[in-house]
Amino acid sequence: MNTSPLDETIKPILRSFDHVLSQLASASSAGKATYQGRMLDTVKRLLKHPGGLAALEARVEALEQAGIFAGTDWAVPSSLVPGMVGNTLKSTELRTVALECVNLLRFLAVVRGVHSQPRLPVEHARHFLTQVLALNLDRILGAHHEAARVSAGELDAAVDQLLKHILDKVGTEGILGQLVDEVWRIMRQRPIQVDHVKSMILQIAIAMNGDGQSFRASDTRLGADRLISALFGPTDLCREDPGLAVYRDRLNAADTGSLQAEATGMARAMHDTGLVSDYHADFLRFVMETGQGHLLADALGLSSTGLDALRCYQALVQQLIDVAVRPGTAQAVLGIALMLERGILYSPPIAPSLWRLLGAKLTPDCEAGLIAAFGTDPTPHQRLVAGVMMLLGQPLGIGQGNNPTCQSARALSMWALNDPDYLLWQLAQATSNDRIIMHFEGQPLDSGTLPAGLALHTPLDADPVSAVLVPHLDRIYAEMGRRVLGRGEDPHRWINPELHGWWVGREFHIAVDVMTGKLHAYDQFIRDFHIAYHPLHNGNEPVIHPQPAGIAVTDSQGTFVGWHAISIIRVALDQSGMMRVYFFNPNNDSGQDWGHGIVVSTHGNGERLGEASLPFAQFTSRLYIFHDDGLETAMAVPVEDAEVAVIREMAHKSWACDRL
């Protein structure tokens, strides 16, 4: 067989590659970091070579076994987030780009069946790659803008080639359809942060309108048109996305009937999708500026409940719109509408607290944190007011971002849902004093004097309220943990009631022994949870206040991943007669596969906006901590041994298999 010149040019690179690979494989755990850098430098050379991608793909399993991912964020593939891949591939740190390329080839090898990962099922790998492809369709379709071409990095061409290669192997069939389904699935949860969703919709629009693209036109039937129009052309006067200047001219020339149609059309698109167009924000500002406030209720899509609140607090709402609603903060429109529908303005402290927020002057540090997360336009104050509107309207839409701060996110959600004036007080402290003061067992804790907790910096991928409050809450949470060290029990017994509020039940139940990590009195734990929360066992007593709880998170194989904080919102029958636990999960996306047939539902089983749910037994099998109020239940119904046995078996087969 003759060797082509192309093959000859790659041989020296491959010899160097294999040599460094052997060094990496034989290095100690401490020494791998040194060889990882050298390995990635060789990967870069290989990626830039015309025949290098195939050679790298053939060596991806050996790379993983040698430890290329050891000690990095890529070490646990099941925890990786598809939405972060695009920015990583654009990084100026070329070793990081190279590592992400190797990671994508690892996922592709799993999908093709040439590499097995015990904790990375084929379907999970395929879903991950599908999302990555969908979020980077512009690179696949060659829809780079001029700035991208001018600033193209040395690996950009190789990355584009890799993505097209993955597309060839995974297949184009259904990519758009899966992306559209994913967007609808996420938006049914009504998250506050929707920038990643808007990016997905933009990719859908590019793919559907691109010349020469290979995606089937039938994919458009999966709801893509509704998503695209909701963002870029929700009504007749902006149907073709003419730009805000042209749209404002059309509004100025429109008659009364056309303006009424705009108002109802905007509201319909917003409540249908959970997305708010910049045109909607501009329409509200036009309505306010031209004295046509009678259109406001229709533009917000209010029911009689929201309309009554608007009429009672019209001056406040108009001022909130003036400050918070503009292109760039359009989602605040949905927040204001849902806040009015909740009726929380009738609580005496809320309206004055919001007036205080409107007049607040942020400290330089507070402004700097918001600018770091969101930029300077809109201003930090405008951005913060918009964030408050979204959180008060969508208390179950907050997420922790890519930050280990589930406790703080859960607290913010609880306060927005159950005690909004307390939330606004905490925010007032942070924005005026750069600190918040809370009490633990009678002693004041001042966040301004405490060391950093898990959140070392302002969270850059969270909502505006989180950007301001989470660093303070995280310090206080960490200090509470330090103060209960050595008590021999789980610290959340004392922390949860003090951190979250008086309504947290003082009776504390835990499924494991803190000292050994083993299951402890687990059958009684199961029975106690039924008596505390199951309506058929506790005399039909509802959940009065949201209650903090802890779950043992498992992956799609049922393998234990870690402990996680959630809130139990309510327990009720779904439309099929199944008793379900409805809960809030602060991890940004509640729809997860916890293995062994336990798939968390976010839609279609009686969930309200932002709730996740599971059948009662399945939820209990992943529960490890809960609180109850300790009140005697007069009509308690004992739990059958068979029910306990089913739950015990589900736990033993998953997170508790090593805790027996």
Helical residues, percent: 40-55%
Query: Main beta sheet: strand number and arrangement?
Result: 6 strands, antiparallel
- Helices, by number, come to 30
Structural class of the secondary structure composition? alpha+beta
Number of strands: 8
Mean pLDDT across residues: 89
Question: What spatial form do the alpha-carbon principal axes imply?
Answer: globular
Beta content comes to 5-15%
Give the N-terminus to C-terminus distance in angstroms: 60 Å
Name the features.
single chain, 660 residues, alpha+beta, six-stranded antiparallel sheet, two-stranded antiparallel ribbon, 30 helices, 53% helix, disordered N terminus
What's this model, at a glance?
By secondary structure, this protein is of the alpha+beta class. The protein has helices spanning 5-26, 32-48, 52-58, 60-66, 85-89, 94-112, 122-135, 137-141, 146-150, 156-170, 175-187, 195-209, 224-232, 244-253, 256-273, 278-289, 296-300, 304-312, 314-324, 332-342, 350-358, 364-374, 380-393, 406-418, 420-433, 464-483, 492-500, 522-533, 616-622, 641-652, and strands at residues 437-440, 443-446, 507-510, 547-554, 560-573, 579-584, 612-615, 623-628.
